[in-house]
Design brief:
The chain is 57% helix and 9% strand. The protein is α/β, with parallel strands linked by helices. It folds into three domains: 83 residues, Four Helix Bundle (Hemerythrin (Met), subunit A) (Up-down Bundle), CATH 1.20.120; 191 residues, P-loop containing nucleotide triphosphate hydrolases (Rossmann fold); 139 residues, 434 Repressor (Amino-terminal Domain). An eight-stranded mixed sheet has the order 3-2-4-1-5-6-7-8, with helices on both faces. Strand 2, helix 6 and strand 3 form a beta-alpha-beta unit. The two termini are 26 Å apart. The chain binds guanosine-5'-triphosphate and magnesium ion. The site of guanosine-5'-triphosphate has 21 residues, from helix 5. The site of magnesium ion has 6 residues, from helix 5.
Length: 450
């Protein structure tokens, strides 16, 4: 994802910090300098970075992290919280009309991802039991309506187009007639422009004035750098935006600018687009993204994805084991089997705390499959006792496992080491969850909600 490099740098910084017996003033300065440079290199807005560093410094002084044995851990938490705040704090749900239909208008620059987002959002809401109608109001690009119609067809969802001469009034008319046709939600795709120009702004402002949407979402391209922030500011000056969508957050460019878009505009990010497919959209959770950026994994999103693909009981049981660090190689194996059903392996592994590194070593495509089979072979060559208690796996056992699985001792070493790291991280996450610093997992009554 776009934040990968940032995540790598921050993870390294904190690993170094954790390696110190006590955090000295020099260590703190060095860590904060690293964080600052990492954020700037990721293209996060300068002012936002300054503010964040100042906040962290102030809180670190307040909590007296210096010379404390748990100082490093405290600093990670302070940075985590500051990033969550920068990203907007708690997740902001999409508005819903008291009296249907809920009208959602998508705006944005050309190619930012509006049409795709319209279809993805319709798909997402339908999964939640809603009955969306897609409205094609991009009358400037001849193929734009066809594009939305094609996406609607793929999803089996209705699409209505407006008359080019009456864009605003047609949108309003379709919206007010939607409930009578059984639609509780209307999603309006609008035209994009290369630059923000007056004609464009007037047209979309007219649509918004006529249709009185409950949500006016600006779709920004997470790969567009500071342009994304600038265009968001310009749009917000003309339109009463209620939320942002970060599209293309799966790209590999420096995506940090998009992290500052909330702080600069004050408009909450509500959704995040993570791929070209029509299910690649997620509700935006600042805390989860902060955890991913800080290399803490993203168990909640993983659990949600898992729930879409496996039965809830299995997902919850595994999540619970995760946090209690009782996870064994057997669990890992069955996780891998399920993960295989769930789509791009690397993406999923990155959400498991401590497995980001493994995900990076996994090449894409067929080679990834080979690598997977290797891991499976290694686990299959372990005895039942070894799988349940990896501590047993000493040197001679490693040689036996390598021989049995047709791999090398260093392959086995690597897997065992990564597994141990994963358990260590899970333990930390588990205690964070217990102290209420992580949101409660579904079906885990023992853990309080943050
Ligand atoms: N990788 C990735 N690609 C995306 C995402 N969202 C959109 N795209 C791609 O970005 C390109 C532009 O998307 P559109 O939805 O057509 O963008 P638009 O804003 O409607 O474009 P115009 O109508 O021309 O202004 C397409 O190739 C999409 O497949 C995303 O989240 N990830
Ligand atoms: Mg479009």
């Amino acid at each position: 994802m776009v934040f990968e490099q940032l995540s790598d740098r921050l993870t390294n910084t904190f690993e170094r910090l954790r390696g110190r017996p006590r955090v000295t003033e020099v260590d703190l300065d060095e860590a904060l300098r690293d964080v600052r440079v990492a954020l700037l290199e990721a293209d996060v807005n300068l002012k936002v970075v300054r503010q964040l560093i100042a906040t962290v410094r102030e809180r670190a002084a307040g909590e007296r992290v210096l010379e404390s044995i748990t100082g490093a851990q405290q600093i990670v938490k302070i940075v985590h919280d500051a990033i969550v705040e920068m990203l907007g704090g708690a997740a902001t749900p999409l508005a819903r009309a008291d009296r249907p239909p809920t009208v959602i208008v998508l705006a944005g620059l050309q190619g930012s991802g509006k049409t795709t987002t319209a279809a993805k959002l319709a798909n997402l809401l339908r999964k939640q039991g809603r009955h969306p109608l897609l409205v094609a109001a991009d009358v400037h690009r001849p193929a734009a309506i066809d594009q939305l119609v094609a996406l609607g067809k793929q999803l089996g969802l209705p699409v209505r187009a407006v008359d080019p001469k009456r864009v605003a009034t047609d949108v309003a008319a379709l919206a007010s007639g939607a409930a009578a046709e059984g639609h509780d939600t209307v999603i309006v795709d609008t035209a994009g422009r290369l630059h923000i120009d007056e004609a464009m702004m007037t047209e979309i402002a007219d649509v918004v004035a006529a249709a009185k949407p409950h949500e006016t979402l600006l779709v920004v391209d997470a790969m567009a750098g500071q342009d994304a922030v600038e265009s968001a500011t310009a749009f917000h000056a003309r339109l009463p935006l209620t939320g942002l969508v970060l599209a293309k957050a799966d790209g590999d460019a420096r995506g940090g600018a998009s992290l500052s878009v909330r702080a600069v505009t004050g408009v909450p990010v509500k959704l995040i687009g993570t791929g070209e497919k029509l299910d690649a959209i997620e509700v935006f959770h600042p805390d989860r993204l902060a955890q991913r950026i800080l290399g803490m994994g993203d168990i909640l999103t993983l659990v949600e994805r898992a729930q879409e693909h496996m039965d809830e009981k299995t997902a919850e049981a595994q999540a619970k084991k995760f946090l209690e660090a009782q996870f064994t190689f057997d669990d890992f194996y069955s996780q891998l089997q399920q993960v295989k059903k769930m789509g791009p392996l690397g993406d999923l592994l990155k959400m498991i705390p401590g497995l980001g590194g493994l995900a990076k070593q996994l090449p894409e495509g067929p080679e990834a499959e080979r690598e997977m089979r290797k891991i499976e072979a290694i686990i299959s060559s372990m005895t039942k006792a070894e799988r349940a208690d990896p501590v047993l796996i000493n040197g001679s056992r490693r040689r036996r496992i390598a021989a049995g699985s047709g791999t090398t001792v260093s392959d086995v070493n690597r897997l065992v080491k990564q597994f141990a790291e994963m358990r260590k991280l899970m333990k930390q996450m588990g205690s964070m969850a217990k102290s209420g610093r992580l949101p409660r997992l579904p079906g885990m009554p023992g853990l309080p909600r943050a």
